[in-house]
């Protein structure tokens, strides 16, 4: 009798009770949010609050900060580095680092310019070649890290130096290659969709989000897992619609929805879907959470690590293409300056943990909004760049401190 009762209780507890709370409607989401806060899981709350404070502060000092034209400029400023940061998020989820993405973006943009301008190759073929070169570079990094066992810090530090040297070699003695103003490469960051097209794109994104949400609920139902009611999906889709259409409306007051911003946000959404909805994404989180446990579970840890570095360098190449497009040129400083530091800082500020296994690609978007807003606001106020560096460094330190305290809170509550 006792044994039967025990089996019954085990069957009732087969589904994690926290999932039941999370799936019990709007009230359940609020309760889940409070539970996460009590457990030290702050999510994107700190960066969201910080972003509001930054925007309110700069707007109070200069009303032009939230003007449509300035926000349009901000969206273009963050696209290239934000794209690079998406790849950095993937690497951080493994609990590793990639110090080479700045040099990779500079090298691949040089390859793009040489092929497109000097060799007369089409814009499309040149862009694909640049992305392929980025993938090859990532495969080299991944091989030495995952197969040979060289620490990722050392491998990518060597890449930072070596690929920068190769970039100078590719550019040649002139050191600068100008891209055609009306060329296909330049159009990536100088194309703006008219209002009607912008709203149509926004509607398509909202519809795709709703369909994916409904599809996920159906799959959960077939698997015998708790599902959200349709009212939850409607509310979530409604909130997404408000955010998207408000953004499109503001951008339409300037030049329209920028193609570069759409590309950046598209990368964020695609990789977020990969991380949350695919087996490969779950393997990345598993390896970042505990590589040995993942290995014993049958995951090819070395292959996952190699593939992530391929993706990271490919995203670095994509960011280099966008940067070259915006500046109409590639030179010896392309990919240098603060490109690498801002890409890493954006991922960390946005909420991706340095300890691995926790975060999402929306960290790149939120973090770049913070860094870009600080830079943009400082420029409007005509403040020295030294102040910008100090403030950005302080924000980065605060993000790491919050991450550390949050991790400690999760450990104390048994959720680390």
TrEMBL record:
Compartment(s) of residence: Cell membrane
Top-level taxonomic group: Bacteria
Keyword Transmembrane found: yes
Keyword Transport carried by entry: yes
Keyword annotations from UniProtKB, A to Z: Cell inner membrane, Cell membrane, Membrane, Sugar transport, Transmembrane, Transmembrane helix, Transport
Annotated TM spans: 42-62, 74-94, 99-117, 123-145, 152-172, 192-212, 233-251, 257-275, 306-328, 340-357, 364-381, 387-405
Membrane topology type: Multi-pass membrane protein
Primary role: Part of the binding-protein-dependent transport system for D-xylose. Probably responsible for the translocation of the substrate across the membrane.
PANTHER family per record: ABC TRANSPORTER PERMEASE PROTEIN YPHD-RELATED-RELATED, XYLOSE TRANSPORT SYSTEM PERMEASE PROTEIN XYLH
Official protein name in the record: Xylose transport system permease protein XylH
